[in-house]
Amino acid sequence: MSTGLSVLEKENKKKSVFSKNNNSKVILFSSVKGGNGASFISNCVSSYLAKTKIQNILLLDLNIGKRDSRIIFDLEEKDLRDIGDIEDSIKEIDISLLKRLVVNFDNSLNLILPPLKPEKNKICCGKNLSLLLGILKHYYEIICVDFPYYLFMKNDFDFTENVDKFVFVSMPDLISVSNLEIFSRHICVDDIPNNIKIIINKFNTRPAVSPARLNSILKYPVQAFIPYDRDIEFLYHSKGPFYIFNYNLRIVKNIIDFSELLYEELDFEKKQ
Ligand SMILES: Nc1ncnc2c1ncn2[C@@H]1O[C@H](COP(=O)(O)OP(=O)(O)O)[C@@H](O)[C@H]1O
Ligand SMILES: [Mg+2]
What we know:
The protein is an alpha/beta fold. It has ten helices and eight strands. Helix 2 packs across helix 10 (250-266). The structure holds adenosine-5'-diphosphate (ADP) and magnesium ion (MG).
């Protein structure tokens, strides 16, 4: 695997980042229905950014009651804390609590797991999510949130205030694309269209609408077309998202290009 910055190098950079306080960015990944690939894209993009960029990257998985990230990152056997374990102390989160909560990978990705019990969902109540993001922004420069669709129904979460980029992932079929269209219009504030990134995932699968029709249906332009690749799906399930970047395949190239575009737009000062 090609190397990004070592964990140690990042540790040193981190100190200066923390003391400078934050210019942190929140990227929210979602899709209108399950199975479209929102988690796939958020896991791969955050892994790629962690591997290649100097910033501290946190992946916050909010899929309460789902074990996907534990499977994908090979954490099933480990008895790890998750966001449900700290739901009564969100206001008091500090570095020592974070150290016990956050899973750190060798290649410097940081991960917060969702609770497996659906009733451990206080994080979704009231202002808790805004509060949590506010605190996490002091410690991480890029926060990728795997954000399930139903959380958009939360009336007390201010998306404009809390989120810098939205990445909406859709399959190429008419129903998925049409639903994405009403959804993105509803969610997105008109003055920040550049903050909405649309990905058409598994574009080589059928049924699919033509690119011309896509443009007529969707208000926002498509930023990336990611093909479905069976071998990559197998690798992703068996070895995890980091591993796929060893392969020079179109799907990998497209994910890298998209991640680079997103990163560029986050507009961090060049501090290398
Ligand atoms: N472009 C792709 N190539 C290969 N497999 C993919 C691709 N996109 C998603 N998958 C696989 O499809 C399944 C559903 O994706 P997932 O990310 O869980 O969807 P969602 O989070 O939107 O419900 C997962 O098993 C994932 O590994
Ligand atoms: Mg998902």
